[in-house]
Amino acid sequence: MGNLGKLTKSTIFVAFLWIIQSVGRFFFGYLSAITPEGLLDAEVSQAIIQIIDAMFFLLGILGFIAVVGLLSMKKGGFWATVLVSVATIVFDMWGLTIQYTATMGFIVPAILILYLYFKKSQLLATMK
User: Fold this and answer.
1) How many helices (H) and strands (E) does the chain have?
2) Residue closest to 108 by CA, chosen among 18, 15, 9
């Protein structure tokens, strides 16, 4: 991945967390899609289940794209990671209105945003 020598252990660690988050989004999106009533405890319409499934897949894909950009030490990857993290938190805030377990989806994006906020100057200075 290009500038691997400039990557810090903490950047690699948060990228690893984000990869796990993206895999989890795909996994739960898939499980929900193949389960007739979805995975929610609350009863919602089929349209809402489909929106949730689509968002899980979309956030999973965008998460992988963002983390590749971050690990490639590209400024666009930095900002994509921030945007996907914010979008994930917004989606999970909406999900919280349906099911309380959506709070688990906040953990990795919140860690990432905090990390990127505190390392912003340092990271952007070394990115192309």
Assistant:
1) 4, 0
2) 18
Number of domains in the chain: 1
| Token output for 122 | 């340092």
- Tell me if 38 sits within 8 A of 3, measured CB to CB: no
For the chain, what is the mean pLDDT?
A: 90
In angstroms, rounded to a whole number, what is the distance separating the alpha carbons of residues 102 and 100? Answer: 5
Residue 43: inside a domain, yes or no?
Answer: yes
8 Å CB contact between 88 and 52? no
Domain that holds residue 67: 8-126
Look at phi and psi of residue 13 and say left if phi exceeds 0, alpha if psi is from -120 to 50, else beta.
alpha
Q: In this model, does residue 100 exceed pLDDT 70?
A: yes
Residue 2 lies in a domain: no
- Each residue's pLDDT tens digit, 17-73: 999 999 999 999 999 999 988 888 888 898 999 999 999 999 999 999 999 999 999
Q: How far apart are CA 9 and CA 101, in angstroms?
A: 30
Q: Which phi and psi angles does 81 have, rounded to 5°?
A: -65, -40
